[in-house]
Design goal:
With 138 residues, this protein is α+β, with helices and mostly antiparallel strands. Helix content is 25%, strand content 33%. Strands 1-5-4-3-2-6-7 form a 7-stranded antiparallel sheet. α1 packs across α2. It is globular. It starts with a strand and ends in a 10-residue tail after the last strand.
Length: 138
């Protein structure tokens, strides 16, 4: 199943928009597997439930002339069985995540996030630095 891309245009700065998606990943039922504070990229996945194997998310925040844009890629978690409705579930999950970010940035200051050092998760589950370029992990 192909990944689903969802975008969110914002008048917030890239740092503010990235802080919002990072806050959601930190406070929700998610596992962060990579974060680059320098390039505003985040890789995380939702936990498994009785009804779902969860989703994998890759978020990139880019600067635009009027503020910033969040590009969120939603896909199946790796190494889990696929089903016929995964596309629809991935699209719905991506939309819900973007709605959560919209709520987080509307009506006040960007939510505070716990400081987190930039890292990526390698194949052997070790943490490696991620401060430039694309995801260097698995």
């Amino acid at each position: 199943m192909p990944p689903i891309k969802t975008t969110l245009q914002s008048d917030k700065t890239p740092s503010e928009l990235f802080a919002a998606i990072l806050h959601i990943a930190q406070t929700g039922k998610h596992m962060i597997t990579g974060v680059s504070n320098e390039t505003h990229q985040l890789l995380f996945h939702s936990t498994m439930t009785m009804m779902s194997f969860g989703h994998q998310y890759f978020a990139v925040v880019k600067s635009t002339p009027g503020g910033s844009v969040l590009e969120l890629i939603t896909a199946n978690r790796p190494n889990v069985p696929m089903s016929m409705i995964d596309d629809r579930k991935n699209k719905k999950s991506g939309q819900k995540m973007v709605e959560a970010v919209t709520r987080a940035i509307s009506g006040g200051p960007t939510p505070a996030t716990a400081p987190i050092q930039s890292f990526a998760t390698a194949h052997d589950k070790s943490r490696i630095p991620w401060t430039t370029g694309n995801y260097p992990g698995a």
